[in-house]
Amino acid sequence: MYPPNNHESAEVVETSWLDSSIRLQRERIEQILLQPLGELSLQCAGHWHQLMRLEADLQGYLRQNTQHRCRQLYVLDLQGQLYSSSISDSRIDASSIGEDMSRRPYLELIQQQFDGVLPENRVFISDVYIDRKTHKPCLTALHSIRQQGQPLGYLAADFGLSDLPLSTTHYQPQTHWRQIKGDPSIRSTLFYQTRVDSEMDQHLDDVLDMIESLMTEQGIFHAKLHFSSSRATLWPYHDPYHYRLHVLQEIISPDTCLAYARTAYPEQAVVPASKIAAVLQLFRKLRQADDTIYLRAGSLNIMNGLVGLNFSCDGSHYIPYDEFLSKDFAFWAGETGN
Known about the structure:
alpha+beta, Beta-Lactamase, 2 domains, 7-stranded antiparallel beta sheet, 5-stranded antiparallel beta sheet
């Protein structure tokens, strides 16, 4: 038996929700910063050959613009050299004037995408990076500085993400199977190990009955069974920020049900209540089918419909429940589907 390996690996990123959310967030930041940075760029263009007045423009922006605070302002020439001091609320640092910053990733992208000349009326947003001083995520916004249409350089503004009005994006549930490879050291010694029955294995009927009851009748929307270590983590529908950790004796004790209120099965659930038992029983088969490659932990989330599987080879799968149930046991045993 071996978990199928015909689905995407950890190197392939889920694009549907994550990429669209990042794109929308970047577009919103560009829209927010276009006017204030555009107006400041015009001021800088008028004082391009008067460095003291140009830097006064940067200082004035920091004093007056309280809505979209940036942590640092500076001006670059077209070759990517620092043209002005780096100016923040706390200091004016002239020590780096003339420093070559052309190898900064955002300047290299401008070179690649726009032949080194950023279009007019455009804010370019860098990729998010971790600031070396604050150790927090930041980004740099750039606007071209022009005189009579001719490019002179760039206005650059460094922002911490906490300084920007990031919006909440709408999550689109995962609808496809994802496979993630685990620790190579575990995989390399896989065939030297043998499954040992845990305490949970010895009480599996009681455990699965209890979990089904808690999920269908008592408001548990996400349950993860750690078969090898004989524990379970449960997330209640009415208190999702605090998961409950139960050891085996608590899981199999009917009295534990008294700790969870009777709760109607949520209408928003993706997984029908009638399918929960089938998912749990397939967990049992994957746990018991082979002494070398076996299920170490399995989870079910009825709200997003995902089944999570972690095998002895340390490989993990995240799969919609209906696709999980549609594969017969022979598929998982490696007889088909490979």
